Amino acid sequence: MKLYNTLTRKKEDFVPLKPGEVTMYSCGPTVYNYFHIGNARPFIIFDVLRRFLEYTGYNVKFVQNFTDIDDKMIKKANEEGKSVFDIAEFYIGEYYKDARALGIKDPTVAPRATDNIDAIISTIEKLIEKGYAYEEEGDVYFSARSFDEYGKLSGHNIEDLEAGARVSVDERKKNPADFALWKAQKPGEPAWDSPWGKGRPGWHIECSAMANRFLGETIDIHSGGQDLIFPHHENEIAQSEAANGKPFARYWLHNGFITIDNEKMSKSAGNFFTVRDIAKEYDYEVIRFFMLTAHYRSPINFSDELLEQAKSALNRIYECRDNMLFYFSNSENEGTDEAVLEKLRQYKTKFIQAMEDDLNTADALGAIFELVREINTIIALQVPPGKGTVEKAYELLAELTGVLGILSRKHENNIDEEVEGLIEERQKARAEKNYKRADEIRDLLNKMGFEIQDTPHGVKVVSKNRR
Ligand SMILES: [Zn+2]
């Protein structure tokens, strides 16, 4: 598989450090709110990467943290008159509700910063000992200049960074490009004991400490949104490599931005949507599908129109599955046609090739739609190639959509007695050549949300009420 590595700025063959095993770290949410549609993109994309790696036989250890202490957490807790811990507890629970509904697998480990203060402190101690960090009145800073390769991920150089950096009045750092590893307690803030007095960790150090604790000194893949390249990931590299004297992450993956109606998403522009908001109108799976329609490194634009398109595209896959199930319960031809299966398997090859090319989910979906078209065509034949063939086609579609984490809804037969009665009545009317009555019943069923299709294998009923 080839992956684009931000660190080397090229597509590289992916070869994990240990054969058969992949260690992966992805930056998780700060749990002070429901997560927004921009956060959802990396969660979904890197879940697909994980699923694909597992599909190709790797054992993937996937760590994603919860940032449960920082300025935003403290502000939210004060606003609501609750403890930072209570805010974190609540929004971690809500994270799992949204993430699971989006089909995102739980991380192998989902550590919280506040559960790992000991690992954070010992990493900072190591950095001070080795001369990469210094204490200043209860704060501890990382000295950017002390790490020769500072800037290698983002392409910034230290002189420009120092010239552009702003130092706020309450900071005590020696150089403008330095950043906080530990912050001395301010009145009313939660704090932990440390060798430098009471305080709390900076944001960047938590990822270095937890990646090290749960995955080791060198990990295979580190992923996150493009907006994290600088300073967050640059700082993670500096901290981890300075502390351990080893490369931190071998492949750095970053997803592109999301725009809303072609504008940057921001609270002030009023186009700031949480996944929870959007899920009121669209099924979570439609949101997931939408994210896969563009290559993950490209920008993606989010609009009602594009979500509608995603919805109807996803429904085409569900309809294909319904077609197969319908054929299956109505045909008596048990045969299997190897030549047809051979043709269908070509789409699997195409799918895998697309995924191996830097996770090109857009092309992978293209292969799935070609498969769908082919399956629909063979089922519509006067003499379809038998149930054995259709069974294999069904398994193939489930296999490929499973890698993308879509087509996960159960087949629902929401046809009740009333609808069944009407269908029978219509069949009777048709048999008696009472086409007027048959059409009336069809229109009535239409109004009730059911489409009636007369196929060579009998009457097929399609529910139109999918979200
Ligand atoms: Zn991080």
**Strand line-up across the major sheet:** 4-3-9-10
Biggest sheet architecture:
4 strands, parallel
* Number of beta strands: 15
User: How many DSSP H or I helices?
Assistant: 15
User: By CATH's scheme, which homologous superfamily of the largest domain applies?
Assistant: HUPs
What does this structure look like?
The strands form 5 sheets. The protein has a 4-stranded parallel beta sheet with strand order 4-3-9-10, sandwiched between helices. A 4-stranded antiparallel beta sheet has the order 5-6-7-8. It has a 3-stranded mixed beta sheet with strand order 12-11-13. The chain is built from 15 helices and 15 strands. The chain has helices spanning 37-55, 71-80, 84-101, 117-129, 158-164, 203-215, 229-244, 275-278, 284-292, 304-330, 338-356, 361-380, 387-404, 417-431, 435-447; strands at residues 2-5, 10-13, 21-26, 59-64, 133-136, 139-142, 179-184, 199-201, 219-225, 249-255, 258-260, 263-264, 300-302, 450-455, 458-463. Strand 5 (133-136) and strand 6 (139-142) form a beta hairpin. The protein has 467 residues and is an alpha/beta fold. The chain folds into 3 domains: 2-255, Rossmann fold; 290-404, Four Helix Bundle (Hemerythrin (Met), subunit A), CATH 1.20.120; 417-463. Zinc ion (ZN) is lined by residues 27, 207, 232, 236. Residues 27, 207, 232, 236 line the site of zinc ion (ZN).
